[in-house]
Amino acid sequence: MTSRVEDCHAAHLQQRRSERRNIHGLVLLDKPVGMTSNRALQRVKRLYSAKKAGHTGSLDPLASGLLPVCLGEATKISSYLLDADKTYETTVQLGWSTTTGDEEGDVLRSKRVPALTEERVQQALAGFEGDYDQVPPMYSAIKKSGQPLYRLARKGVEVEREKRRVRIVQCHLLHLDDNSLRLRLRCSKGTYVRVFAEDLAEALGTCGHVKALRRIAVGRFSEADMVSLAQLQNWQESGQFERLSERLVRADQALSDWPEIDLPDPLAKKIRQGNSVSCSMGQRPGLVRLYAGHQRFLGIGQVDAEGKVSPKRLFNE
């Protein structure tokens, strides 16, 4: 038989679960330095009493900035936002590299920093723009034989990693100091800024690591759209729940740069049933937002070469 304490604990957990709400949308969180992305996600989930939550690409604990947190039905688009370009501002410390590629690691090696000019740095940056092959760092969540690399790294084990092709869309020098560079970098998903910093330092004739990192944009969302955990906490504790609601971004707004197709009710019903429909709107093949009656967001559809629209990821009504 269970004890009264256990019964009370179970009842409390059940009450907590029943209090969770059907909250749907994105919170564009400004993750603070020193917090893991998962912990930040759980904080947002609790503040909104949401049943379900997910994020669209983690940030290292030492990084700050934009972490889109998807709540409820919006979790269905998280993988699509993960594909979006990311923009970072980073400070690269030249002269020594570390075991982790950032300030957290031990010094791995040191090398004299040559005299640098803005022109020399810009020239090196230009060499990285476009497609670029990176070797993922050992301190990463990539798995080898089912085990995350960072766990192997903590044991002092290093394994061979395959290069991954990423894309540097733009890279600008914001400030040049004697031994450090401040950069703004726009890149494709899967780009490790720590590895980029190491490769750039090598191209400049030295070694280096990331001293500071802040993500300032994900896709169409920028620094101006962010809200801090402290602000969310303040609104929640003071009962300003309307302010919390105002910070929720609709899922279809997050995909507003995608083309949209508005379906008449009979075709929308077929899509809801999982069927493909013919659409004579001249839409190019690819992913689209699907609506019924201009306002009701159905979800994500796929247009094929013949103009047929198939449901890809639908939202519950």
Describe the structure.
This protein has helices spanning 4-19, 37-47, 78-82, 118-126, 149-154, 193-203, 229-237, 241-246, 251-254, 265-272; strands at 25-31, 53-55, 63-71, 86-94, 96-98, 107-110, 130-134, 143-144, 147-148, 164-176, 180-187, 208-218, 221-222, 227-228, 260-263, 277-278, 286-292, 296-303, 308-314. The protein is globular and about 70 Å long. Strands 1, 2, 3, 4, 7, 10, 11, 12, 13 and 14 form a ten-stranded mixed sheet that branches. A five-stranded mixed sheet has the order 15-17-18-19-16. Strands 5-6 form a two-stranded antiparallel sheet. The longest helix has 16 residues, at 4-19. 31% of the residues are buried. It has 317 residues and is an alpha+beta fold. Helices cover 27% and strands 34% of the residues. The chain is built from ten helices and 19 strands. The model is unreliable at 5-18 (pLDDT under 50).
Q: What letter string, H or E per element, gives the SSE order?
A: HEHEEHEEEHEEEHEEHEEEHHHEHEEEE
Q: How many independent structural domains?
A: 3
CATH fold annotation of the largest domain: Pseudouridine synthase
* Low-confidence runs: 5-18
Q: What would you call the shape?
A: globular
Number of strands: 19
SS strand fraction: 25-35%
- How much helix is in the residues? 25-40%
The residue-averaged pLDDT reads 89
CATH homology superfamily of the largest domain: Pseudouridine synthase
